[in-house]
Structure formats: structure tokens, C-alpha cells
TrEMBL record, chain A:
Membrane-crossing segments per the record: 75-94, 101-118, 124-141, 153-173, 198-221, 233-251, 266-284, 291-309, 315-339, 360-382, 394-412, 433-455, 475-493, 505-527
Start and end residues of each NADH:quinone oxidoreductase/Mrp antiporter transmembrane domain: 118-408
Main location: membrane
Gene Ontology biological process terms, A to Z: ATP synthesis coupled electron transport
Pfam family name, one: Proton_antipo_M
Lineage: Bacteria, Bacillati, Bacillota, Bacilli, Lactobacillales
Domain of life: Bacteria
GO cellular component: plasma membrane
Stated name of the protein: Cation:proton antiporter
Organism listed in the record: Alkalibacterium putridalgicola
UniProtKB/TrEMBL annotation, chain B:
Alphabetized UniProt keyword annotations: Membrane, Transmembrane, Transmembrane helix
Top-rank lineage group of the source organism: Bacteria
Organism in which the protein naturally occurs: Alkalibacterium putridalgicola
Cell location: Membrane
Protein name: Multicomponent Na+:H+ antiporter subunit C
UniProt key word Ribosomal protein: no
Lineage of source species: Bacteria, Bacillati, Bacillota, Bacilli, Lactobacillales
Transmembrane as UniProt keyword: yes
Amino acid sequence: MLGIFVLAPILIGTIAYIIRDTWAKPLLFLFQFSYVAFAFSQFLSVKANGPIIWNTGGYTDGLALSLFADSLSIFMVLMTSFIYLAFLIFAVNADYFHSKFYFMFLVLEGLIMGLFLSSDLFNIFVFSEVSTVVVSILIMLNKEKQAIYDGMIYFFVNVIGSSFLLFGAGMIYRTFGLLDIRAVSAAMPMLEEPQAMILPYAMMIVTVSNKTAVMPLFSWLPKAHGTPSAPPVISAVLSGLYIKSGVYLFIRFNQMFAPVIDMQSFFFWVGFFTSVMGVIMALGQRDIKLFLAYSTVSQVGLIVVGLSMGSNVAYWGAVYHIFNHALFKSTLFLTSGLIEKEYKTRNIHEIRGLFRRMPWVGAATAFAVLGITGAPFFNGSISKYMIANGTKDAGITLLLNIINLGTILSYVKYSAMLFGKSREEQPGKPERIAAATAFVLGVISLFTGLFGEFLTEFFFGIELQVDTAEYIKKSLVYVFMLVAGVAFYKGLLKRDRILERIGTTELTFNGIITVMTGYFITILVFLSSVL
Amino acid sequence: MNFIFGEVAGILIFFIGLCGLMIKKSIVKTIMALTVMESGIILFYITINYTPDTIPPIGQAQEAAFADPVPAALMITAIVIGIGITAIGLTMFMHYKQEHGITHWTRDRNQQGSERKC
């Protein structure tokens, strides 16, 4: 049954590509609604009866190519299908919503589902290669010069990254004679020499680190996610959903190697530096899309930190942050597209007075900004509370606070757009459906925060007791940090030359590959000193 | 002991390809280096778990042990994907070169095509 998740979007996309536009739109929406309903029913079934396994060809489990849904992967599927529905509604009246676009868009949905559900290493490789192709075509949809350059960088870097995964899978097969993640995981403790796993682990983790865009490997991400001419929906799907497949594989691979290899302390620091670096780069940007892309880097860093803290609460907090980040980053990218269309610029310093000129879009942006900075009652505060609850160590708490201060600092810069007075210009054509979709996504950021305790229990079965006194304390810290952020930004960082120079530095293609090799060697050296 | 066998050669070819990606600025050479990397992986796969005196698993005859067919099956898929990747890479490059006349990776945003709007 799980095969439907992968196959159905691709089939429907193909049919919609062939038939006329007037029929394709109702078909797409009908399909996506039923798809969300199906995902929800499967989610409930996993919740009630435990994991679902779907083996192709009736072979025994472990040998067959299989799709596997446990509580984590079916949650990712549900999240993806739901946000895809919002994206389709957002894009329905846009000028780029033609057959080529929605064919690629739906194929990408099927491939993301494949990455979430697949339990076979080779299938994961195939899905990641094909989705790389689809994503790069989507980036280049407008065939602008810069978009093609960015798409090429994205394409080659990720193809090279994926070939590491193929090599790693070959080494796993050589050792175990298995390719299924669950079977390999079960066989892992029987391994006599843990050293044999150093090379495959390093290979596979380079791929997922590249896909997740952690510290030294994030250079491709702002190019791909912040491509100026790419439609906002594509940037949103890349930043909101597609990057999560990398994080998901990061979780899965680390679980697979857990019996012999423990890299949590390493990835804690990698995540921390990713987060800090993302904020510093984001502060140096003028282009709102590039700003949001670098902010994605920093949030992914926070997720990696949460996953690597070695505590159950922090782990599920990070998973909840994946969902929350998908919500508010999608909202921000969608609204940024509307803002760009209205103001005809992407310069963060020229856009002012959003509340007055585009009230609904302004409100959606405000909700999303409050969510991402972790304001009280918003969803970000719940997931950050869970991550912070995973530790009692004062030093780690301090590091988490530094990350959060950085996020607030960068979004003080971003939310300056909301206020002030806009230049007098003819207001553009209002896009009601698109603005309403963005607004609804923004409001969901509030509701997933208000009902955070219920939702974490419902989605993950984690009983989260939000301690009121501690939550209020955290809220006070938030307000304090907000004030500090505003003061710090206004006083020091506004139009800071050094930050802007840092923000515009970038690696060439050869630099990116060299850094990737360096990262690979670092992991090899680190592992051989540990094991 | 003989150190020159498929697996070692596969690993070496993979890293030679990677080296080419690190030092060559030309986009065509990038695509070639990518193909070199892929052939290294293919060589590695088809030589793992290989023992002499095995026969292909075709038919019902059982005179000798069957060779492991899985790596070969995987590599057929990987070769097909590799061809697709090379073709798409070349298509992108050709379009970019014909439209804008650029053959090398560059750091210059202007040359890449940014409009300096902001």
C-alpha cells in the first residue's frame, strides 16, 4: 500500500501534463486532497497498529526492496502532503502554473515521499539522484542566466554528494550482504571489527551532510534556495520540505550505525557552528530570498544540535522543529514572493511599511517571524523548549541561547520591513488566494504552538509537560533577548560593512568540492581516533 | 600478496575523479571527472564478493556455486542513472555556453549573470 505514496503523484503529474489545463487543475486539487486524507489514514493506522512494511514482489523482508513507515517517516509523509496542498493552492493563479511546472512539482512530491519511506540504501540513492535532477530543472524553470548557473552548481554538487552514498552502500553490501537499512541495523552489533564501518560511515555521512547543508558544505544551499528568478513556491518547497529529506536520512543513517559508531558530540558542534555561521551570513544579506536561505542553514543547524544531544525530549523536539520550520519557512518564502511582486525589489532596506501596504501578507510574515524566533505561544517556542529541556548542563543551555539570540538578531533585520512608510507607488494587483494561503500557514504556526502539548502527544506519543514557571521564564528570556536584539542591531549591525563583506563571500565550484573532500577526511580522522 | 585487484582500483579511480573535480575549472572536465568517479564505483561494485569458479545464476544447473547477481543488477541501474546525469549535465552546460559563452566555473557574480539589482 505504501507504494501509492510514491507512485500516485508521479502518475497524476503525468496525466495532468497530458490533458488540457482546464481539466488538470481540478484533477490536481482532487488528487492532493485525497492524498492528504490517505496519508492521514495511514498515519492513524501506524499510530494504532505499529509500523507498516511493504515489500515488493513478495520476497522476504530484509531481502526485498521495501518501503517502511514508522511513526517518524509517516509523520514526515503527512507533513509533506499537507504543505504540498498549501503550495498548490498558493500557486494556482500564478503565471508559472503551467503543465511543465506542475508535472515536475508532483514528481518531486513522489520522490520526497520515496526518500522518506524507502528502507533500501540503493533505492535511497536512486531517489536522491532523480530528485536532484528534478529540483535543478525546477530551479532553472525561467532559464535566466543566474538561475542556470545556480542550478548547475546545485546539480553537480549534489550528484557528486550522492555518488559517495552509492560507494558507501557498496561497502555496506560487501560487509553484510544486505542493503536494507533495518536489516543492516540488526546485523550491526554482530560485527567483529567496528573499524570496518569507518569508511562506509564517512562516505554516507558526507552525502547526508551535503544534503542537510551543515557547516562547511552549505555553499550550494543559498544559491539553490535563493535563486532570484525561481518562483516562490519552488524556493519554499526546497527550503521547507526538500531539505528535510536530508535531515531525515541523517537520523536514519545515524540510527543504523548506532551500535558501533557514536558521533553525537561531533555533530553537536557541527550543528552549533552551522547555526552561528548561518546567522552571520544571513545578517550580511540584502536580498530577502538569500536572507531566508541562510536562515534555513541556521535553523537546520539547530535541528542537528537537537538531534545530537542524546536525549529523547530534545530528539523529538528537533523532529517537531522540522515540522515547525517547514511551516514558517514556507510562509516566509511564499510571502517574500508576494512582497517582491508588489514592491518590485528584493532589497531588504528598500521594503518598508508592509503592514500598511499589504496587511494580510504583513500579518502572515509577522506570524512566521514570531514562530521562527520562538515567541511565547508560537510553535517555535515549543520545539525550542523541548530541545532546551534535553539538557541540564549550563554550558549547553548557554550555547542554545546563543543560537536563539542569533535567530532573533537576524529576524530583527528582516522584520524591519513590516514597519515604517513605504514609497508611494501604484499598488499592484492583489493576489487574494495566494495571500490567504500564506496567512493560513502563518496562523497554523500560532495554533501548532498553542496546542503544542496535544500535538506532540498526538504525532509522536511523547508526553510533554510544559512547566508553566519554566515556560514563563523562557518567555521573559525571549523578551529580554528581543530587546537586546533590537538594540544591538540598531546600534551596531545596521549596514555593517564587515558583515556585508562576509555575506558576499562564496566558494567556487572547485572550492565546494575541496571542502567536501576535507570534510570527508576530517570524519575519517575523527573516527579512526575514536574507534 | 597481490594488491592490484578490483576493489582497490575502484577506490583509486573514485578518488582520481574527485581530484579532477577539485582542481579543474572547466565545466566539461567536471562532467568527465564525474564519469570517471562513476566508473570507479562500478568497478568496485562488480568486484565485491566475487570468487573465481562461480557461474552466472541462469537456468537450473547446479554444477558450481552461483555468483552474486545483486551488484551487477544494481550497477545496471546505476549506469542508466549515470548516463542520464551526464546527458543532463551536458545539456545544461551546452545551453549555458551557447546563450552566454561561459565554459568555466567563476566566482564573479556579474559573469554568472546576477543583475546587480540589489
